Amino acid sequence: ASLHDHNKFLALGTHYGKVYLLDVQGNITQKFDVVTFVCLFNLFSGSDDMLAPSSLQIIAVHPHFVRSSCKQFVTGGKKLLLFERSWMSRWKSSVLHEGEGNIRSVKWRGHLIAWANNMVKVHLHLSKACSAPEGCLCWKDNVTLIIGWGTSVKICSVKERHASEMRDLPSRYSVDIISMSQFETEFYISGLAPLCDQLVVLSYVKEVSEKTEREYCARPRLDIIQPLSETCEEISSDALTVRGFQENECRDYHLEYSEGESLFYIVSPRDVVVAKERDQDDHIDWLLEKKKYEISNIKRIKAFFVINLSCWSTRIKCQKILGKNAALWEYEVYKFKEIGQLKAISPYLPRGDPVLKPLIYEMILHEFLESDYEGFATLIREWPGDLYNNSVIVQAVRDHLKKDSQNRTLLKTLAELYTYDKNYGNALEIYLTLRHKDVFQLIHKHNLFSSIKDKIVLLMDFDSEKAVDMLLDNEDKISIKKVVEELEDRPELQHVYLHKLFKRDHHKGQRYHEKQISLYAEFDRPNLLPFLRDSIHCPLEKVKLSLLISRMGNSRSALKMIMEELHDVDKAIEFAKEQDDAELWEDLILYSIDKPPFITGLLNNIGTHVDPILLIHRIKEGMEIPNLRDSLVKILQDYNLQILLREGCKKILVNHIGTACLLFFLPCPLPLDAAKPFSMVVFHCRHMFHKECLPVPSMTSPAQFCNICSAKHRGPGSAILEMKK
């Protein structure tokens, strides 16, 4: 393929016989079909009124053609043909050259045409030709032709002949190689172009693999060289990435250029790469990249900043360019919005002197909120809250949380917004929900102790150690009593708090020492004895009672500890009474049976709960028991008392319900044995009968009636109440 640059468009010819017109951005605007392969060189000479694109269909039917003006053009192939428009607008052709193979390159400059086949030819004034070695061509100026051939570069010039040598030849005919100007390069030359007094060289590169030691095609290079008398100096070198470079050959690359704009086009079978000379804009980019902000031409830079939107990623770093001009800053932000790069400018916006309108900052925050939660959170942390309307951003975040209620980044950011808005209660609740490490810092910084009185359990669940330290350090703001009350349903946390309080001061929480005994017994047994030893505010009997709490293990273990460690039979009996468990009484008797003092205590106290005979039968003969006589007397007295109580109760009961059976007027005494069951029938009219005295209900008359009331035709006696004992 080949390409030609025009000041308004590019013309690209392909191996498939098509010509494309492209705009300067590389977009195809028109396409033309031609008969065979087309290669375009210098199709247009620069005037705006050149050949209309539609006429390309006429002139592009040849394998190779060149255009110099709207009235003349040449084509290449096996013949170099000159076409000229006659006065009747017809095209007349003449052969300039033939017979030396296909013509592969043609360059037209002024009155001179140079072409390359197996040799390089120069046609002077559209007349005859002279020859030079084969290669690629470019005109440096109207009299200087540069030829690249293989790895060599030759510079030729057209010299005017002396008048004696002119004869019938044109004045500029001779082509000479400038003396000592030929030099060699390291690579094959695929294209040449002038750049002031330097040369742009498109090099075809082959390298040798270190692993296989075989030669392979590398990426082509675009070099800028400075020609010297017998050699050259490399000014710069860039390797170009084009598709399929591994399979390309030297002839597959072409270099075309536009003199007016210093644009260079590297043409490969699959890509066209555009290169241009570095200018002031590039210099500014370099200065910005190196953070060299002391630039004298500030007007030029401002224009660059505003116009060159394609360099947004670099130019925004120079904040000094816009200075303190808020209006210019805001104008720039809207420019960035137009190209969809609001996020790119955000790190460089001024945050004071000048301060932009709140809408500017809100616009950027909304941009991040829609696509980058982390970036949004970063801006909220970095930007002062007075740059934007806080309530607007809070509402926007809450709207997003409706879609993603568990998003930790949004929740944390919302807490920060609440904090700035002094809405500490909501902020604290979010921090606690997130279990965020900053929650304690927030409480201290903003003195939020009044807000956490009902959140003590949450704080303790989050970090009990930090929470206890904070609460104890601020007893004047949250009392010990309040903390203990809040932790009433969480005894394990209550113990952590009271334990640390006791460690700090043995006396401050003295009112809770009795409570702490059971807490230590349940949650921290190793520290129970040290606590009992150090505390002077626990009654001894309470200490002993605490040790028999069944939650330490089970009731039998607790009873054993009381007997073995406290040796207190009274407490053991009290504990057994509270538990009301026959197995505990059995354990107590077995433990006490070889301990006379314990036997005495049992004899004096168990009479009303356990049959004393169970204990007495187990006492060994000959065992001396202190106060045995008094204990036995007490047992007998207790037994007599029980008998008297039973008889008294029996008399009261008989007197209360004892009366005659109204049917046969027989007495209705209670049986002597209170345990023996008996039945009475009482009607609602309060008449009472033995159940046996009443007729047995039949199938025809299942209901029973009071005989007395029925005889008197009264209704209340129709209901029956049966009493059983």
From TrEMBL:
<dbReference type="GO" id="GO:0006623">
    <property type="term" value="P:protein targeting to vacuole"/>
</dbReference>
<dbReference type="GO" id="GO:0016236">
    <property type="term" value="P:macroautophagy"/>
</dbReference>
<dbReference type="InterPro" id="IPR057780">
    <property type="entry name" value="Beta-prop_Vps41"/>
</dbReference>
<dbReference type="GO" id="GO:0005770">
    <property type="term" value="C:late endosome"/>
</dbReference>
<dbReference type="InterPro" id="IPR045111">
    <property type="entry name" value="Vps41/Vps8"/>
</dbReference>
<feature type="domain" description="Vps41 beta-propeller">
    <location>
        <begin position="137"/>
        <end position="277"/>
    </location>
</feature>
<protein>
    <recommendedName>
        <fullName>Vacuolar protein sorting-associated protein 41 homolog</fullName>
    </recommendedName>
</protein>
<dbReference type="GO" id="GO:0034058">
    <property type="term" value="P:endosomal vesicle fusion"/>
</dbReference>
<dbReference type="InterPro" id="IPR011990">
    <property type="entry name" value="TPR-like_helical_dom_sf"/>
</dbReference>
<feature type="domain" description="Vps41 C-terminal RING finger">
    <location>
        <begin position="670"/>
        <end position="711"/>
    </location>
</feature>
<dbReference type="Pfam" id="PF23411">
    <property type="entry name" value="Beta-prop_Vps41"/>
</dbReference>
<feature type="repeat" description="CHCR">
    <location>
        <begin position="468"/>
        <end position="601"/>
    </location>
</feature>
<dbReference type="InterPro" id="IPR057779">
    <property type="entry name" value="Znf_RING_Vps41"/>
</dbReference>
<dbReference type="Pfam" id="PF23556">
    <property type="entry name" value="TPR_Vps41"/>
</dbReference>
<dbReference type="GO" id="GO:0030897">
    <property type="term" value="C:HOPS complex"/>
</dbReference>
<dbReference type="Pfam" id="PF23555">
    <property type="entry name" value="zf-RING_Vps41"/>
</dbReference>
<keyword id="KW-0813">Transport</keyword>
<keyword id="KW-0653">Protein transport</keyword>
<feature type="domain" description="Vps41 beta-propeller">
    <location>
        <begin position="56"/>
        <end position="119"/>
    </location>
</feature>
<dbReference type="GO" id="GO:0009267">
    <property type="term" value="P:cellular response to starvation"/>
</dbReference>
<dbReference type="InterPro" id="IPR000547">
    <property type="entry name" value="Clathrin_H-chain/VPS_repeat"/>
</dbReference>
